[in-house]
Design a protein that fits this description.
- The complex is a heterodimer of chains A (280) and B (109).
- Chain A is of the alpha/beta class and 280 residues long.
- Chain A has helices at residues 14-23, 71-75, 100-104, 143-150, 170-176, 190-205, 223-230, 243-250, 255-258, 260-279, and strands at 2-6, 28-32, 49-61, 81-84, 87-90, 110-125, 128-135, 159-163, 181-186, 210-217, 235-240.
- Helices cover 32% and strands 29% of the residues of chain A.
- A nine-stranded mixed β-sheet of chain A has the order 3-6-7-2-8-1-9-10-11, sandwiched between helices. A two-stranded antiparallel ribbon of chain A has the order 4-5.
- The relative contact order of chain A is 0.21.
- Chain B has helices spanning 50-60, 73-81, 94-102; strands spanning 2-7, 25-30, 35-40, 63-68, 85-88.
- Chain B has a single domain, classed as Dinitrogenase iron-molybdenum cofactor biosynthesis domain (Nucleotidyltransferase, domain 5, 2-Layer Sandwich), CATH 3.30.420.
- A five-stranded mixed β-sheet of chain B has the order 3-2-1-4-5, sandwiched between helices.
- In chain B, helix 1 packs parallel to helix 2 (73-81).
- In chain B, helix 2 links the parallel strand 4 (63-68) and strand 5.
- The chains are: A alpha/beta (280), B alpha/beta (109).
- The interface between A and B is medium-sized, with 11 and 14 residues.
């Protein structure tokens, strides 16, 4: 079973939930797909090593063939090719690697060369497998790094947890796709609700099953819970806004490690999700 | 010869905009007939690479120089590659800046 942890707003507790699920089970894989700032490793004592690179294909111009017709730059959706007299400027960092330029070039003057934009790291501890992707500093495209990270999924593991980037853009969709279930971690504030609603809309459009964990319960108001009730979205768990939880977190101890009570809750959470999936 | 500068409003008293690639309009002055026009910046709402698209547009308008408050690395690369002269402008009315440029009192950067 593959479960992705998503959120609209950043800082709602995705990593807390993802690492807690990981550390309360024995035969499980965790993938930290928040490649702009992967931080699950802060809560794990698993040493990792580099196991792969994420690359995209960017254009390279052969000036012996280029006639400066401008077809490549006119068709580049991202304006990463500029046709100037005497040269085609290529902005590799803006290029999404779609390949339309080399496909359309009538002179076959554009070839594609790989460019590394991210790295994949991995480590194990008994039956626990941990992978994370990391976008190279200065790079902008996280989606191909997440796609590469997901090539390292160990299907034989009973349970696979993916920590998604926040928001509801391409990178989140890439993390979520092919999951059996999505947990949205949300905080009960107007901002938390507004961002969660966008995620709900996105997940419905891509036909994903999902439920909500309310984190920092006790702050804000009850609008988020009312929304979930009205929309028939299951509330899977509530984590209180509690100074002890925050203190343990600041010491690198995630929720499931902070007390046996919470560890048990996370084992029950998986059972609850299996029930949700089987209900449909 | 034509010189362009980003401006915040579409009127003759317009003032230099402190953004180049995402400025609302461009004030284009033509030395041939001492006249100006104000055009929309088609790159204002670009998802990314606004500076690049803005320069691409200005090249298509035949611009040879620009007066700008500051520029990002991508815009700079296109401006330099296209041999467009770049002058440093303060936040002043476009008319004043063009006069200063004519008097050669703007610094080329």
């Amino acid at each position: 079973m593959q479960i992705t942890i998503a959120s609209g707003k950043g800082g709602t507790g995705k990593t807390t939930i993802a690492t807690s699920l990981f550390l309360s089970h024995e035969n499980i894989q965790l993938l930290d797909a928040d490649v702009d700032e992967p931080n699950c490793s802060l809560f794990l004592s698993i040493s990792v090593k580099e196991v792969g690179e994420a690359q995209i294909l960017v254009p390279e111009i052969d000036y012996t063939k280029c006639t400066h017709c401008g077809i490549c730059s006119e068709n580049c959706e991202f304006h990463s090719l500029i046709n100037l007299p005497g040269q085609i400027l290529v902005f590799e960092k803006i290029c999404h690697g779609c390949g339309v330029c080399s496909y359309l070039c009538p002179e076959k003057a554009i070839s594609e060369k790989p460019r590394t934009i991210g790295k994949i790291f991995a480590g194990t501890d008994k039956e626990l497998i941990f992978h994370y992707g990391e976008l190279i500093v200065g790079e902008e495209l996280s989606t191909p790094v997440i796609a590469k990270l997901k090539n390292f999924i160990h299907q034989e593991k009973g349970l696979i947890i993916i920590d998604s980037p926040p928001g509801s853009a391409c990178s989140m969709v890439e993390a979520v796709i092919n999951s059996d279930y999505v947990i949205i971690v949300a905080e009960p504030t107007p901002f938390g609700l507004s961002d969660m609603q966008i995620v709900v809309e996105t997940l419905r459009r891509i036909k994903m099953e999902f439920g909500v964990i309310i984190n920092k319960d006790g702050i804000g108001n009850d609008e988020l819970e009312t929304f979930c009730t009205e929309e028939e979205i299951p509330i899977l768990m509530k984590v209180p806004f509690d100074i002890e939880i925050a203190q343990k977190y600041s010491e690198g101890k995630t929720l499931a490690v902070s007390s046996p009570y919470w560890k048990k809750k996370f084992i029950e959470l998986i059972k609850k999700i299996k029930g949700e999936i089987n209900n449909d | 010869m034509k010189i362009a500068l980003p401006v915040a409003t579409r009127d003759e008293n317009c003032v230099l905009d402190n953004r180049f690639g995402r400025g609302s309009f461009y004030y284009i002055f033509d030395t041939e007939n001492d006249s100006f026009e104000i055009v929309d910046n088609p790159a204002k709402q670009a998802r990314g690479g606004a500076g690049i698209q803005a320069v691409e547009y200005l090249i298509s308008k035949g611009i040879e120089s620009v007066i700008i408050p500051e520029m990002g690395p991508n815009a700079e690369r296109v401006l330099r590659s296209a041999n467009i002269s770049v002058f440093q402008g303060e936040i002043l009315p476009a008319k004043v800046l063009v006069e200063k440029w004519k008097n050669k009192s703007l610094k080329e950067i």
